[in-house]
Amino acid sequence: MKEPSAQLSENARYYWGVDCGSSEIKVVLCDASGNILHKKKGKTLFPLYQNVYNALNDGDATPFVENSPITKDNHKIIATGYGRHHLQFVDDKLTEIKAHFLGVQHQLKLDVPYTIIDIGGQDAKVITIDNSKVDEFAMNRKCAAGTGAFIEELAHRLEVPIGDMTKLANQHDKEFMLNSFCTVFSGQEVIKTLMNGERIENLIFALYRSVVKRVLEMTVVSTDIVAFSGGVIAHHPLLVELFGQKLSDKEMVLTPETQYCGALGAAVHGMSV
Amino acid sequence: MDLKQIMQNYFLDLDAAAKDPDRKVAWCTSVGPAEILRAMGFDVYFPENHGAMLGATRLCMETIPVANSKGYSPEICSYLTSDIGAYLKNITPLAKAYGVEDVPRPDVLVYNTNQCKDVMHWFEFYAREFDAPIFGIHSPAHLPEVEPEHIANVVAQFKQLIRSLEEITQEKFDPKKLERCLALSSGATSLWSEVLKTAIADPSPFSFFDATIFMGPIVVLRGTEIARDYYRDLLMELEQKVATTRSRENAVQKRVYWEGMPIWGRLRHLSELFKRNDTCVVASTYCNSWIFADFDPHDPLPSMALAYLQIFINRNDTYKEKYISDMVKMYSVDGVIFHAAKTCPNNSNSYYNLPGRLKRNGIPTIVIDGDLCDLRCFSDEQSTNVIEAFLETL
After folding, report:
1. Contact A148, A141 (CB under 8 A)
2. This prediction's pTM
3. Separation CA B320–CA B297 (nearest Å)
4. b/e code A250-262 from CB counts within 10 Å (16+ = b)
5. What is the distance, to the nearest Å, from the Cα of residue B239 to the centroid of all Cα atoms in its chain?
6. Which of A84, A131, A137, A222 to mutate to test the interface with B (most CBs of B within 10 A)?
7. B274-331, pLDDT tens digit by residue?
């Protein structure tokens, strides 16, 4: 990753994408061609403004001055994510649905219909792209099943570091399903299953399968290509393989900048407004 | 007369009626036989209107849990739980709004199941509490078409109701009074329909959120001159607004349709959300619910039966699909937002894939989760995200 100070010029145009998600803030800086010059992420914490500001101001040579991040005319800041409406200093805002589409499309440059599965901290989205635009989308309802929060809650219950989960799940020797839809009740089910002597590796594998099941219950995936984006996929790559097993007649594509798709899409959006 | 004054007079008069031994108060469901009650000399009170007020003022968030703790499930109609909770807690939004301390005590309760069955349980609670007589019109439901036998069925129930009410009032039913009342109702409802149709104009002179306020008189004052005169004046005002808004400078970019109940406690939040996104909610099924084009003063009981039976909520999904499709065309709507109200399945039409069927016919749709009153079922953040993402796709 290049430092922004090494790239910035007074005469060029720059586009900052800020994805203010429920768990993490992701920031990317792009040049006018959409090349990523800089990216950074941090926890979504209070005060939100300050945390975003910290992410934008990365080092002494940033284009921004204290409390006035839009002083440079050649810089545009676009926000997406749940926190987008809380950022007053941005030039424009867009939803994560469109941002993830723009971010994925910018990287994959697909000219056929495809589906984006984006698993975020508190929501999961299945977005259908047709004719180079969002055709329709489905989101999880008021329930954390199938989201990052679901995985985090159960990792906490199991006292397993998030980063170890894929490794442990790959060591499973048995497949079964968790029944509960509700995150809290799934937690109870997990503890009960452990008490009954089940291996933790099998439980984690079941947990991943549960996420896949919940996401695919939201809508029918009708396209031949499925692209993945979002932070949860970045931390839990086994999910892509499990989706592939369920959607065996389709091509699975992991978007390169998985976690930054939303932020990148926001920056790309900045080029058109 | 302005709207606030009309509503204040209505509630003050109801309060006076409840305290006057010579006057009688009837409680009625919003699409119940209010015209019969009014023609027979009752002052009519609509608990659903009270439920909406509890929702709009968000007082319901204090009262729903009271009803829940008394055994009324959080899954059932939150008008019911809001209202019964308010009664148990002895509070009412009428106190602050109009200086009326109590809802009027009923001399009789009359419900119609053309909307749902919950109104029956709701009214039965109060019938027990006040030891008051209760009558129900049990309507044939989910109709593809309203057939003569359906009308005959309901007319027979009206006749039985009239006989029962005669015993309560000790007065003979006067058909002329019903004709007069129905003529006034018909006039008001026609004007209300014309008011709503002014939103066909682009830019629309008002939004769904304004209409939920304008609709007060057509809900509680059907069958009176007051309602008819209010909508005559309002129509003139809106037509003038349409005529003078020649420039498209302020025209909104998108026009959407709201299907389902209002989210009473978040009307302003949602109104601002749409405004922020250059969108006008130009029409709704909900506000159209008080259009009764079939009222005929020359054929009162059958025409009332027809009008009450053929309301949208009492029809099957084939009818609903066509109805919404027609509205989409009439109002030049870009997309339809379905509100899935957690405690009002009867007035939530997204559960059996109606949005999917409309989508297949080329009408963009989206579903948001919420509730008419219970804000525990509604997420500001999630609904904002879904609505904004939907508007982006239009």
Report:
1. no
2. 0.92
3. 28
4. bebbebebbbbbb
5. 24
6. A137
7. 999 999 999 999 999 999 999 999 999 999 999 999 999 999 999 999 999 999 999 9
Query: In the Cβ-directed half-sphere of B50, how many Cα atoms lie within 13 Å?
Result: 28
Give me the pLDDT at residue A65, please.
Answer: 44
Q: Nearest-CA neighbor of B331 among B234, B204, B213?
A: B204
CA-nearest residue of chain A to B392? A98
Give the whole-number percent of chain A exceeding pLDDT 90.
57
**Phi, then psi, of B379 in degrees rounded to 5:** -115, 115
Percentage of chain B surpassing pLDDT 70? 98
Quote the tokens at residue A224.
């031949």
Query: What is the DSSP pairing of strand B24-28 with strand B108-112?
Result: parallel
B384–A contact, CB cutoff 8 A = yes
Render the burial of B316-355: b for 16+ CB within 10 Å, e for the rest.
eeebbbebbbebbeebebbbbbbbbbbbbebbbbbeeebb
The pLDDT of residue A53: 72
Confidence class of residue A24 from pLDDT cuts 50, 70 and 90?
confident
Are B389 and A97 inside 8 Å of each other by CB?
A: yes
CA-CA distance, B39 to A162, in Å (whole number)?
A: 70
Q: Count CB atoms within 10 A of the CB of residue A197.
A: 6
**DSSP character at residue A62:** -
Q: Mind telling me how many Å the CA of B370 is from chain A's nearest CA?
A: 10
For residue A123, which of A24, A210, A22 has the smallest C-alpha distance? A22
DSSP 8-class letter at B242: H
Q: How far apart are CA B39 and CA B215, in angstroms?
A: 22
Query: Quick one: tokens of B192?
Result: 């209300």
Going across the sheet that includes B108-112, the strands are B42-45, B24-28, B108-112, B134-137
Tell me, yes or no, if A130 comes closer than 8 A to chain B by beta carbon: no
